[in-house]
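User: Sequence recovery, please. Input:
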């Protein structure tokens, strides 16, 4: 059970260390991921939608007024116009007169943004004749359940519907009542064109611009513009109504000089009375789009747009429905003719990545800069930078997530700030606890943080260094010790921080008085509840013991050197005792031991041993004629040739004078010995040059085989010797086997 508990404890320690190391290495990424996950949950729940839409509205209100566009003129049925009719709704006769008057100015398209499903006599027949005779007239129809606040169905004028001169004027309102999306088509069993699209197509017809499918895309292409179909989660929306063919409206802000209700932007308006009185400049209507609709406050056909409210205005400023249709129509035409930016959004994965990047930036900067002032300035700067970039992208037609990005960035900063505060509090407690503990220990003890600074010391360590605690705290090794010592200390500390293993070591330490101490250190890593790492080192001064050890080591080295010298002398004497001084070959004593060992070995195997006794022929003549020095050189040359003729396992020895013996080990039969003897004879008979003199000798060889010819070393040698003399008698330069 003890071993099992120890294994479990070690495993838990390893897992905890792994978790802590992982968090410390990827803390910014982990923090960013947690914050990103929480913010995305809020976003998926729709809790950020209203904030994102409000931010989008502010961008619309901040944008600059665009260049003057006078393609559209609104014929407004205001309060004074209604009073002049003496009835409501306007009679068919009056409406027919109005349409005919407008047609005299030759507009490209006329939009009748007035419900006319029922006749309003008098003048019904006249109005029908006008409907039939005006090819550029478009009426409206309201479809039910289109996502707008209107739930009913208002039919179009029958004659206009029959001639397909109808567009639906349904609007898609968000939860706050504002209209931010435009509808191109609706699908109610068949496809219906929107009122704005119908008018835009009439205007674009002379330019030969017609709807078609975009290349390599399922979306609608109209002139220079591709209308990307709205999806339920585009931009800041969450599960929004995406029925029909909608697109995010990049509401224009066209400049206006006259008839814009006192505003510097909008669309030119002229009331019905002036049109009927023909008190309208021709260029306000000719070759333009004219939209007829109610603007009277008593007929509350009012819509809210991104321009309807701002921080400066408490009450939303709604616009008439006819003006909203003018906005949509203008946007379609400007996009098709001039390539004006339509509102686009990023795909959801890219939005998540963008939000996550800012969460990571917030966490990283907060970890890097601990100063509150520095972080406040960073937060202020980056929030402004993010907002500014989002606005610049908005001006280029991109709606990117601003609110969730700001929230994740600020939340990451707050999250890391809380972590740092907790870490610092635990760090303070840990320092106090460690200070209390180490002051009770006699050995020098130091505690370092991850920056390798001393944060806690006891009195013994201060005495060892020769400095007070105040002088040492928050310092590092490089501030006090020579560089080579500081490098060694840093290497050991890094090892403990990296491996989290206990490390024992012996080191040198130079104090402030330049006195060198030998210390034995034990380093270990500790962690508090907040994950702060502390390196705790315990040192012991072992200078006296080390000096004694060095003295003993020097004595041992001297003894070792003496022993080595004696061994070399012994080896030299042994070599002299067992080797011939002239040739360096084993001598008679070495030969006798080798032969005895070989016979003992062969008794345990199936191999044979051959003993060759070699005596030189003609050596005496060379010795007498050329001198003993030449004779010695001859013997050395013969010894080398004999060695070259043998295998690595064979042994050649010099018995004395010109007599040599050869032991052939591990031979399968006697013919091997005969072959080697032939090789020796040929080698020896080759001419020998001795300092300018040429000499020739030969050899007589006697061969005895163990165990065939003898069973002991003495007999084996005698038989080989006898065989050698028999070879000499038979004419020399030959070999003979023992009988």
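Assistant: Recovered sequence (739 residues):
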């Amino acid at each position: 059970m003890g071993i099992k508990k120890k294994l479990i404890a070690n495993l838990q320690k390893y897992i905890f260390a792994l978790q802590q190391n992982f968090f410390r290495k990827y803390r910014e990424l982990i923090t960013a991921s947690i914050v990103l996950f929480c913010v995305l949950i809020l976003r998926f729940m729709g809790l950020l939608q209203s904030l994102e839409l409000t931010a989008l509205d502010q961008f619309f209100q901040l944008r600059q007024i665009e260049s003057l566009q006078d393609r559209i003129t609104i014929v407004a049925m205001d309060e004074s116009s209604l009073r002049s009719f003496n009835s409501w709704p306007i009679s068919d006769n009056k409406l027919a007169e109005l349409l005919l008057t407008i047609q005299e100015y030759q507009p490209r398209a006329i939009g009748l943004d007035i419900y006319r499903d029922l006749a309003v006599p008098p003048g019904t027949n006249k109005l029908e004749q006008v409907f039939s005779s005006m090819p550029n007239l478009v009426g409206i129809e309201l479809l039910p359940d289109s996502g707008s606040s209107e739930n009913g169905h208002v039919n179009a004028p029958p004659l206009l519907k029959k001639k397909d001169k109808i567009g639906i004027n349904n609007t898609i309102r968000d939860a706050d009542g504002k209209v931010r999306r435009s509808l191109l088509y609706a699908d109610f069993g068949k496809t219906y064109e929107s009122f704005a699209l119908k008018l835009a197509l009439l205007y674009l017809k002379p330019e030969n611009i017609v709807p078609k499918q975009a290349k390599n895309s399922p979306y609608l292409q109209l002139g220079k513009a591709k209308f990307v179909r709205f999806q339920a989660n585009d931009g800041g929306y969450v599960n929004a109504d995406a029925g029909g063919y909608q697109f995010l409206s990049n509401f224009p802000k066209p400049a206006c000089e006259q008839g814009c209700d006192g505003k510097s932007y909008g669309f030119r308006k002229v009331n019905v009375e002036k049109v009927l009185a023909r008190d309208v400049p021709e260029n306000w209507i000719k070759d333009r789009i004219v939209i007829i609709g109610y603007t009277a406050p008593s007929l509350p056909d009012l819509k809210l747009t991104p321009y309807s409210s701002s921080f400066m205005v408490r009450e939303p400023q709604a616009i008439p429905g006819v003006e909203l249709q003018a906005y949509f129509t203008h946007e379609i035409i400007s996009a098709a003719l001039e390539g004006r930016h339509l509102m686009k959004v990023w795909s959801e994965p890219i939005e998540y990545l963008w939000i996550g990047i800012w969460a990571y930036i917030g966490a990283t900067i907060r970890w890097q800069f601990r100063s509150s002032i520095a972080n406040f300035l960073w937060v202020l700067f980056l929030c402004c930078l993010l907002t500014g970039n989002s606005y610049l992208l908005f001006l280029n037609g991109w709606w990117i997530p601003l609110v969730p990005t700001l929230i994740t960035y600020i939340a990451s900063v707050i999250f890391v700030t809380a972590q740092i505060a907790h870490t610092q509090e635990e760090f303070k407690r840990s320092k106090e606890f460690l200070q209390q503990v180490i002051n009770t220990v006699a050995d020098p003890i130091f505690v370092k943080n991850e920056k390798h600074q001393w944060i806690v010391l006891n009195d013994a360590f201060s005495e060892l260094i020769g400095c007070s605690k105040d002088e040492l705290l928050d310092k590092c090794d490089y501030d006090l010790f020579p560089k080579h010592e500081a490098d060694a200390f840093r290497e050991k500390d890094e090892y403990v921080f990296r491996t989290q293993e206990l490390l024992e070591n012996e080191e040198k330490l130079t104090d402030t008085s330049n006195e060198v101490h030998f210390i034995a250190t034990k380093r270990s890593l500790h962690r508090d509840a907040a994950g702060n790492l502390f390196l705790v080192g315990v040192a012991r001064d072992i200078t006296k013991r080390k000096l004694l050890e060095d003295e003993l080591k020097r004595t041992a080295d001297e003894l070792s050197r003496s022993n080595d010298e004696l061994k070399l002398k012994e080896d030299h004497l042994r070599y002299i005792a067992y080797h011939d001084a002239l040739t360096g070959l084993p001598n008679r004593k070495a030969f006798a031991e080798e032969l005895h060992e070989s016979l003992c070995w062969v008794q345990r195997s199936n191999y044979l041993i051959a003993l060759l006794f070699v005596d030189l022929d003609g050596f005496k003549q060379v010795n007498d004629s050329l001198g003993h020095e030449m004779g010695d050189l001859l013997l050395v040359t013969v010894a080398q040739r004999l060695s070259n003729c043998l295998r690595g396992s064979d042994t050649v020895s010099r018995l004395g004078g010109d007599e040599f013996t050869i032991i052939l080990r591990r031979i399968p039969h006697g013919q091997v010995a005969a072959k080697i003897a032939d090789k020796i004879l040929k080698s020896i008979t080759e001419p020998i040059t001795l300092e300018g003199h040429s000499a020739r000798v030969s050899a007589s060889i006697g061969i005895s085989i163990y165990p065939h010819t003898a069973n002991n070393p003495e007999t084996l040698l005698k038989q080989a010797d006898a065989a050698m003399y028999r070879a000499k008698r038979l004419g020399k330069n030959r070999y003979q086997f023992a009988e």
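The first strand starts at residue 66 and ends at 68.
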